[in-house]
Amino acid sequence: MFKRLVEILAVSAACVAAFPAAAQEPLKIGMVLEMSGGFADFGMQMMNGARAYMKVHGDTVAGRKVQLIVKDTTGVPDVAKRVAQELVTNDKVDFLAGFGLTPSALAVASLATEAKKPMIVMNAATSIITTRSPYIARVSFTLPQVTAPLATWALRNGITRAYTLVADYGPGIDAETQFKKTFTASGGQIVGDVRTPMRNPEFAPFLQRIKDARPQAVFVFLPAGEQAVGFMKGFAERELDKAGIKLIATGDVTEDGVIEAMGDAPLGVVTTQHYSVAHDSAQNRIFLKAYAEVSGSSQRANFMAVGAWDGMAAIYEVARRLNGAIDGDKAMEILKGMKIDSPRGPVTIDPATRDPIETIYVRRVERLKDGKLYNVEFDQFTNVKDPTR
Ligand code: DHB
């Protein structure tokens, strides 16, 4: 027994001698995620999206074992900053990644610059994020990028009088600004606007105000999850649909992970976004199968899980191209212009902005044969960039 152990140790020593030290250490990915609090679903989706990628593509890349180190921001930017600092200083991670919420991503940007750590934003979607550090690349989307196509679609489909309702922080303000810009530039009229608190909003009074203003449509951005469910229920209860007011929204509002909790309320709602579970592609089928296996739950994947999958694809590609020796500046050069074959379709990281260029789909909520609600894609805008940059 002891002799066998000595043999194993000898073989390990030989391996250590044959490869440079760095090649033996795990490739550490520090995941800064919302794992508790009101946005805990974001972290769960993103962690499982990353794990699904590793299940399909292996847990070793360029000779290095991949290690995800997950830290909880609790949804608070100062906590995000502290845990990111720990990941850099104590865990000595090769990449920072994750970031469901914009305020968390913004809080960590200066640290990425100081530490020269590539920071892969897998969701947070306010435009300015990538301007805050040259070490940030985003694989997800921006709110103006999905909102401009929706305003164009609305005008093409006879909607000329709209009200806007958005969450009162970065992504909501971006969505509102872009919707108004694109909509009014081609003759649309905004008849009212409202911004709702980022935490625990009460929608009833706002919905009544919108109903009284009698717009043809209300445009909405709310962070995915609980808020979207609350809004959708209120919309149906106050019978805005019966008053002839159409709901048009970014895909966050009819997000795949929670749409089943909305009953029939979202049927027929038109949204724009970069990902739907119903997207018909081989990559998407592979992604969904792996996601279901690693999550062990019946809750469906959403766009945040896809963002994490794609972020892992980007990290693996950087690791391969650098033969496992990660250097922040070299990593960023590789990320600029990188093409990712995503479950949502092809994505290119714009070398000028480090933001994704991708197809934005127009979708309508339908109940399909399996009895479940889906965002069914029926139109698309290809090669869409963030229009504000
Ligand atoms: C954020 C963006 C989203 O699209 C979303 O659904 C939730 C949060 C954000 O950037 O904070």
Strand content: 15-25%
Radius of gyration: 22 Å
- How many DSSP H or I helices? 12
**Percent helix:** 40-55%
Secondary-structure element sequence? HHEHEEHEHEEHEHEHEHEEHHHEEEE
Count the E strands. Answer: 15
Mean pLDDT: 94
What multimeric state do the chains show? single chain
Task: Summarize the biggest pleated sheet.
Answer: 9 strands, mixed
Structural class label: alpha/beta
Shape: globular
Query: Which residues sit in consecutive blocks of at least 5 with pLDDT less than 50?
Result: 1-18
First-to-last CA distance: 65 Å
Query: Which ligands occur here?
Result: 3,4-dihydroxybenzoic acid
Write the layout of secondary structure elements.
Elements lengths: L1 H17 L2 H4 L2 E7 L6 H18 L2 E2 L2 E9 L4 H13 L5 E4 L3 H14 L3 E3 L14 E3 L4 H14 L4 E7 L2 H16 L3 E8 L7 H10 L3 E5 L4 H12 L8 E5 L19 E4 L8 H14 L7 H19 L6 H8 L3 E4 L2 E5 L6 E12 L5 E12 L5
Parallel strand pairs: 1-3, 1-4, 4-5, 5-6, 7-8, 7-9, 9-10, 10-11
Antiparallel strand pairs: 2-3, 11-14, 12-13, 13-14, 14-15
The structure holds 3,4-dihydroxybenzoic acid.
